[in-house]
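Re: the pair you flagged

First of the two:
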Amino acid sequence: MKYKILGRTGVRISELCLGAMTFGEDWGAGIGASKEESRKMFDAFLKAGGNFIDTANLYTHGTSESFLGDFMQGQRERIVLATKYTNSFPTGDPNSSGNHRKNLVQSLDASLKRLKTDYIDLYWVHAWDFMSSTEEVMRALDAAVRSGKVLYVGISDAPAWVVAKANTIAELRGWAPFVGLQIEYSLAERTCERELLPMAKDFDLTVAAWGPLNGGTLTGKYLQSNVETDARYTADLVKSMHRPSERKDNIVREVLRIAKEVGCTPSQVAISWLRQTSSNIVPILGAKRLSQLEDNLASLDVKLSETHMNSLQAVSSIEMGFPHDFFDNDMARMVIYAGMRDLIEV
């Protein structure tokens, strides 16, 4: 395991992140892992050199945080712990969710208790609610940092313009800025390349990518040609937020072909592609069994060739749309740079 710097902080995080959304069986049989299996995955991740672990107050109704609180005893200092606030299942209380200060304060204190710690290394806004003002959210997060309960803050599942506005306000007012961005990103879901990834690069944000296997799609188990032979297909697909398509099938077939050629698993190909796309991306590994996590960790030993990367790029590429396509237009390039773009070094 190698390490990356979290945003501009100087904190060293492992190049893979352990996602703990599956820790606990509160969401039903087959969806999560028992405490014993969760502990095995936690130990295996640390043994492999991992130190970056991600959870949320919502996950398995708080059980995920409670499990981690038990597992971390005696080794809290070595772990870069991330959790989130914002979301809540229906409670009858309208303030039990949202980005506002009241929910932040209450959620943070509850998470600290479950995690059995007095501080969170990285506290994520789980999703943008489009109701709380940007100033309130950033001021409340800054107060949490100044209190010592939170060291750094990040944001998940939000438009690029929201993140850019928030960090600009934080910089101007001397508040704690976002140092990380959490987004869905995989070979099957690349629309974040239009605005979110360029924004993250410009603000030096570390990108934690959830869904690197697109809900299992990239393993091949949802390949439409397998529908008749895979009795689990319909039931599994109901649980998944991802749906099959001709484009996804083409991507999966190419992943399977490369996996066979390289001598690794499809999951390892998908994760390796993600790791090799940019130096600021950290895939979040989510597994229900130790064997799955071990397979994902083994992606560290897989290095895709330039030919493989180009092949995956070709089969999974998306239309960038305006204004990206406009800037690639020959006429636009000519007039923007007076016909001298190729002579200008940047």
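Second of the two:
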Amino acid sequence: MVRKALAGALASAGLLFSPVSPLSLLSPAPAAASDADGRTAAELAEQAEDHLLDAESVRLTMTDRIAEAEGTVTEPSAMDLALDRDGNCVGTIETGGEGGGRVEIVKRGEEVWLKPDAAFWKAHVPGGEGDAVAGLLKDRYLHGTTDDPALEGMAGVCDLGRFQREIGTGASSGGASLIKGEETTRQDTAVVPLTGEEDGGTGEEDGERTTLYVTADAPHRLIEADRRGEGTDVTLTFEDYGKPVPAGTPSPAETVDIGRLEEELLDA
């Protein structure tokens, strides 16, 4: 029961790295306009992509406002993860819909620690069993390894290398030119907005607009990407390029083995 709930929720979380993210416009068709330092919108986007592909680590956040308001409890609505190419990560994932829930995540090597809140268990485990799981956990982390089927999905969610491969092998092949806007600020940083309408490969605009915010000063890095349109309102942010993922892990007193928790549930 515990493994099934975790596996389903984390499989949904893995969709955060789907090719339909706002990064689908990161590799645009050439644009004619040049910015102040002589770079075209396409050149700025290409440099931003290169830096993201080369990053050893990054902090990635996501907010899906539609999922927050209208999504199901298995649909990710927010995320905040520091992750690296070695598959280490620290952060949180929240699910949308009424009474969704929140999961704290720590992954180091093959070891995984998860702390779902009471709302998560109530939403994902039927009847009163969700409350029972939350009560037995007593605010402790579930601990296991990626060999456990319920936890192996974390390897994808926490793997920056996987995310980079998806960008480099098609996730960023958009169908629109980007238009450079006036310099503005994001995260207290001067940025150049690059905006485009995606055609989805059909040659016709689908009404979704993506804006990439690339740092105005070199190195030109992507620090925010927004996608808005009918049924879509997603923001991604990118910070802490190259900053190591925090190495701390929960202490034994703060954890319970996932197998032991199931034994405790059977004995309850």
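The first strand starts at residue 27 and ends at 29.

-B.
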